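Recap from last week: sequence in, structure out.
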Amino acid sequence: MTTPDDSYTRTRERFDSEAVARDYVAKKNSMESSKNLREMICITAALDGVGPGSRVLDLPCGTGRLAGMLLGRSYEVVAADYSLPMIEAAKAYRRETGLDATAQARLTFEQQDVMNTTFDDDAFDVVICNRLLHHYPSSETRRAVLAELARICRDRLVVSYYDSFALSALKFRLRNRLRGVTPTDRVPISSKIFRRDYESCGLRMVRKLPVRRGISPQTYLVLAKA
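Predicted C-alpha cells:
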C-alpha cells in the first residue's frame, strides 16, 4: 500500500462521520435531483453491455445511492465504504426503500479501504468508483487507488473525476486565484494528466461520459485493462 498523503487522510476522516452520513442521505440520495439524474445517466451508460448476474463493486458506496439502480439491473452487488456511519446509513436507506427479499439477497455491505481492499484479484466484473478521485489532487494518490481497483476488476472500471475543461472549473480557478487560496480538494485536472494516471496502472479508456460537457467538470470514464 502506498503511504497515504494528507488528502487521503483528510477525506477518510471527513466522511467517517454520522453527521455527514445523515447529510448525504438528505442531499445525495434524492433520486429527483437533476444532478443525481445526470450522474445516473452517465453511470448506466457506462454499464452498457454488462449482463445480469455480473458481480459489481460500488466503492465508495456512501449512503447507497447506486444500489437500487444496480440491483434493478440484476447484478450481484457489494456496496463498500471505509466509513461505518456511511454503511449504516446505506443499510437503513435500502430498508426504507422496500427492497424485496430477492434483491436483498443480491446486496451485501462491507467496510473496505479503497487503497488496500481485502478482495482477491479479478474479484468483480465491474468496479465503480464514484465521486472520490476529485478529493485527491496528488497523482500519486490517484494512481494508488486506480492500481488497487484495477487489481480487483476483471472487466471494466467506472471512475469519475473533475476535468479542467469546463466552465465551472474555470470559475473555480479564478475564484481561488482572486482569494489567494491554493485549493486542496475538488481540484479539476486536465484529461492529459488523468490519462497518465490511469495508463500508469495498465488501464486504457474505453468511453468518456461528461455529466454536462463544457459546463460541469464531473466526468465519468470507462476503463479496461490494457
